[in-house]
Amino acid sequence: SKDGGRGRWTFYDPQMDEARETRNLLELDLRAAIARGEIEVVYQPVVDAKTFALVSVEALARWNRRGHGPVSPDVFIPIAEASGLIDQLGLCVLRRALFQLSQWPELKLSVNVSPGQFRDPAFVDRVAEVFDEAGIEPGRVVMEMTETYFIQSPDRARQALERLKGLGLRIALDDFGAGFSSVGYLRQFGFDRMKIDRSLVQSLDRGHRAVEMLQATVALARSLGIPVTAEGVETEQQAVILRIAGCDQLQGYLFGRPQSPEDIAALMVRPMEL
Ligand code: C2E
Ligand code: CA
Ligand code: CA
Ligand code: CA
């Protein structure tokens, strides 16, 4: 309404309204896309830090929105999380990725899990069903989770982790170094792997302080017996520093972008050359 007739709108902000509208439309389209099976999955190579051999792939969701084109996961994943669509979306991605993995007996797989997925009390049972259907040994799969959930509700997080680990799955702490990550979480929650965030890897180009910090972090993780993957590796120089620091797996554009299953299959036949 107008503020005392002075011509200033106090309660109505057309710009905010527009943003909300855009978001609602995105949510509607996302819901439809999930129902129609239009969420695709691409796979990014993860290589052994010593040999650069392909050892694993990370499954990443892709949405090509009808009539609009690709929408970034940084946009649609938060919408899925806020609207409760993440349960369905997460299971769709897992189902596709596991069926894909059954074609690749020599590889392991990582999938991302959002904290919201644990709100469904049947989540772990659903996950177990998908593994049964696909005939995949859970030990071949790592679920990647960020620290937010562990900070927000540590007790529930610990329980959820224990149930997933009970199925035989491995759990990785994703995006380490991007937030307030402390190595304490690694031990406290029994993670099986740590993934160093791209921002930390890219800071290596800025000199030895960053290199020393990274070395200390990796050394600490390894002293706890937790192997470390570095992500966002774009240059050979970064790869060398990370390998020497003790990372056992590397992931990044240097080794391959997220790509179609066909391209991953081609990589297995014709190993990458650097
Ligand atoms: P993430 O789990 O940290 O995934 C790594 C992101 O870094 C991916 O972005 C990948 O394409 C990008 N990346 C990999 N290597 C490089 C590099 O060398 N340089 C640069 N600049 N970027 C690199 P993407 O695919 O856009 O995904 C963004 C985020 O969306 C993911 O971050 C993850 O948090 C979320 N996400 C994607 N798929 C899923 C999913 O199926 N479920 C859930 N819950 N989250 C997902
Ligand atoms: Ca991830
Ligand atoms: Ca990450
Ligand atoms: Ca991330």
Descriptive account of the structure:
Helix content is 46%, strand content 19%. Strands 1-2-4-5-6-7-8-9 form an eight-stranded mixed β-barrel, surrounded by six helices. With 274 residues, it is of the alpha/beta class. Strand 6, helix 7 (183-189) and strand 7 form a beta-alpha-beta unit. Bound molecules: ligand C2E and calcium ion (3 copies). One calcium ion (CA) binds next to loops. This is Diguanylate cyclase (GGDEF)-like protein. Residues 23-272 form the EAL domain.
Any chance you could write out the topology, listing elements then pairs?
Layout: H1 14-35, E1 39-48, E2 54-65, E3 69-71, H2 73-83, H3 86-101, E4 108-112, H4 123-134, E5 141-145, H5 148-152, H6 154-166, E6 170-176, H7 183-189, E7 193-196, H8 198-203, H9 208-223, E8 228-230, H10 236-245, E9 249-251, H11 261-269
Parallel strand pairs: 2-4, 4-5, 5-6, 6-7, 7-8, 8-9
Antiparallel strand pairs: 1-2, 1-9, 2-3
Domain EAL: 23-272
Keywords: Membrane, Transmembrane, Transmembrane helix
GO molecular function: cyclic-guanylate-specific phosphodiesterase activity
